[in-house]
Structures are given as C-alpha cells and as structure tokens.
Amino acid sequence: MFSRNPARNGDPVTPTRIRGGLVIDGTGAPARRADVDIHGGRITAIEAPADRGDANRGATAGAGERVIDATGLVVCPGFVDMHAHADLALIREPDRLSAVSQGVTTEVIGQDGLSYAPITPAAATDLHGRIRGWNGDLPDGGITWTSVPEFLERVSGAAVNVAYLAPHGTLRLLVMGTEQRPATPTELDRMAGLLADALAGGAVGMSTGLTYVPALFADDGELTRLCEVVAAHGGYYAPHHRSYGAGAIEAYAECLDLGRRTGVAVHLTHAHLSYALNRGRAPELLALVDAALADGVDVTLDSYPYIVGSSYLHSALPSFLQQRSVDEIVELLARPDVRDDLVERLERRGTTGSHGVPVDWSRVVIGSATDASLPGLSIAELAQRRGVRAIDAYCDVLISERLGAMCLVHEGDEVNLRTILSHPRQCAGSDGLLAGQRPHPRAFGTFARYLGEYSRDLGLVPLELMIHKMTALPAGRIGLADRGVLAVGAAADVVCFDPATVADRATFDQPRRTAVGIQHVLVNGEPVLTDTQPTGARPGRAVTNREAA
C-alpha cells in the first residue's frame, strides 16, 4: 500500500518499538491493543502483544533499539494542522514547540492567499509590511529565495513536516500590484503560469484571501481560471472567502460553485459563522456542503475550537486604504478627514475587512504590539484611557506600530462551532498566529482542546473519529498517500497521548502555555517530544502530493 523507501531526512533512524499502547490508526476504526515497530522512518509492524514472540520483554530495549512504553496511552498518527501560519516561524523557531507540544507533525502553510513564495525582492518588502502581524520579524538574512522549491528547501529541516499552498494574493501582487480592477488576459496568463510553476515546484494547492488586498479585487473569471490550473495539477483550492459575517452563506456558496464548475477540490479554511446576525445558521452552511458533495464536489473544511478570531489589526480598513503602501497608509491615517470618513465606513456600515458588519470596538482586543502597554486592551478601553474617539485610538495604534499589531475579535458563536465541528468532512486547523506578546491561544491549544474538551469532556465526537479528523482526513485532502494513518509502510509520524488527561492550557492571558497529556511525538521515525519534553531533533521535511505511494 505504501512506499517502503526510508525517510529522506539524513542519517538512519534508530529502530523504535512503541509497546503496550491503544492504537487508533486514523481511519476511524475502533481502537485496539498493539505494539508498533518503526525503522528507517517507516512503520514496519503493528501487532497485538500476544502475537509477538518477544511479547514478554516489556519495555526492555534490545541491542540498538529504542523502546517507548505506551502503557495507558493512545498511539495514533501525527496530527496535521490544515491551517498553520508558521511560514517564517519554521525558519526562526525550527523546534516548533507550539506544534510538537500538541502532537502536530505536519503544518500546512501559505494560508489566506498571502505568503512568501514565489516572490521578488521588490514585492517582498511590500508583502511583509502587510502581513508582519501574522508572521513577526523576518528571519536572519531576510528573504533569500524567490521560487517555491527554494522556499520549501528553506523551511525544511524543522521539527515538523511542512506542506505549502501557493498564495493567490501574492501571485496577483507580483503581476498587478494592488490595483483594483479585473486582470487582463495577459495578466491572467502570467498568474496562471506562476501558479503552474508553484504547483510543479511542490505546492499542494492554492489559497486565497478574498477579504484581503489584493485578492479582494479578483473576479469570478480570475478565480475560475486559476482553479482550473489547480485541478489540472491534482491540488486543492483553500479559500478564505469573501465574508464571515454579512453575506457569509453566499460567500461559501461562491467557493463551492467554483468546485462544481472547475472540478477542483475545495477546502473551506477556518470555516465558521461569526457575529450575531449568523447565530444558528451553521445548518445552512452544512446544507450547502452536503449539496456540493452530492453533486460530486470534493469538499472538506477546517476550523479551530474557539469562538474568538484573530488577524492583523489593520484588516478592518477599507480597500481604498489597504491597496496603498504601508507608508501611504500610515500617512493617510494621520489625517482628520480620513478618520472622520472611517467612522462612517467602519462604525456604521462595516467594510469587507470587518465582514460587512459595523465594528464594535469593545470586541476588538489588541493581541500584540511593540508597545508593551497595549496587548490585552480593547480599542474601546484604550480610547477611554486616552480620552479620544475609538477611531482615533485605532488609527494611532496602526501608525505607531506601522501596521504590525495583531488583534483578537470576540464575535464567534459556540453553537455554530459545535455544529460545524460535528460534520464528517470537517478537519482540525489551528489558524495559529505566533507573533507578539498575546497571540491567540489556538496556536498552542487547538489539538489538545479538540481531544480533551470536545471529544472526552463534551462527547461531541468519539475519539476515533476525532483523531480521523486530525490525521487521515486532512492528509487525504493534501494528497499525502503515506501519512495520516498507522499502517505498515506508512511514514512514522506518531503521537502517544494520555486520553484521560490531555487538555489545552493556553489562555488569552497566557497564550504560550503548552498542552498536557501529549507524551511522545515522532516525526519520520525520530522523537521530537519525549516524556513531554522537546528533544531538539529536526527531522521534518517538505511533503507534497506527488510523492510515490
């Protein structure tokens, strides 16, 4: 079923035996007692202890063998984070503590249509200025790559594997800048060519961010053409669609219709329905998904198990500002007439960036900023402290931080979240943002929270199916034929966790607290977490949907 080629991660890996655990293989099948043998980065045997001639050896290692005692633990495939924002963190922080501490062994980056490959030196400065709040500072040496293969080489060699989505917004930025108009046929040809090169170079699909400049300006013809390219390369389309508030249902429908017309597989990223006007509407979204599935569209979706969202603070600005350079935006935000206009646009009407909903500044909390006095304050609280209008406090922060601040938006709905989470085509994705003092706790807590609160404590999804949502289902979406399951010949990405104690500990006040209950994590057969402690090993590599099965 699987390739038996050894993992391509350097020196041979010590043979490993995981003994005495409860194996949940990722397929949704019932748990069973079994030992798991690993060699050369691959699973070589999965056998019940009674079937083994050496069953009585317990946790004693043979010569040259590593033994992990998994008594009382679940042994399952490594978790796949379908929506990671570790694009630069993989370079700056290759030990990837936020990932391995909660059992993640593969991260999918290049999300929301804005990432760092393909890129040019000229575009890199503008791009990073826009998304610095997502990614933090550039790594030492800056951006030294231009192509997708070069970028994948740069992010390889971290503690976890990485898969990459070609970012539509970046492609548009390279071809058209931030102009608000349809692409010409020549420009569309150039974007399609860049996308084809990215997919041939290792990208597993294409993401887009249809509330972010410049992807915001893409019309249906542009998206259709590019989705046809993705489909031709066997990839998938991962849209951050046009609205998560007013017009959300219509925005989801647009994405699913692209799947119908082009044949592209569709993965709805961070799928949720927020704001008061969408309470109780999750069944409408899932009815759209089910109808598309019935029509033959290959649909999956991911979500994080929190009702608070997060993005860069300037995301709520209207497009006529967003399409300008960072310097120009900062200059315009200082003007009283611009601020007066923003009162109307943001507080009374809402913008694409606020998903068509008027902004409630008491629900917008600063998550990170260079000014250490700001994180944890809502814009309304900051305005009150300073004795100014909310719009003035907002603009002042954007100016002083040069658009680098992050925010948390408290507009979610728990009933919608649980309804979406229960759908059989829903996968886990953290949408983890790692920059600044108070990032969203989902970066450190998502997967443990799914296992602890939503599966064990609430009983919303049985454990075998919850693990399926975190392993085989997302791996299949990406096209990773040898990951996401425990089977002989599969890549040895493995997690051992305590089902009775696994829980998230990250909070909005302490967002970098690691989860509990995740005991051991192996990536390509090499331990990256042992007895809850990081090992410092970095066996991860770039993975694609074209590896031999």
From TrEMBL:
Region (Disordered): 1-25, 528-549
Any single Pfam family the record assigns to this protein: Amidohydro_3
Residue ranges of every copy of the Amidohydrolase domain listed in the record: 66-528
Gene3D superfamilies found in the cross-reference section: D-aminoacylase. Domain 3 (3.30.1490.130), Metal-dependent hydrolases (3.20.20.140), Urease, subunit C, domain 1 (2.30.40.10)
Name this protein carries in UniProt: D-aminoacylase
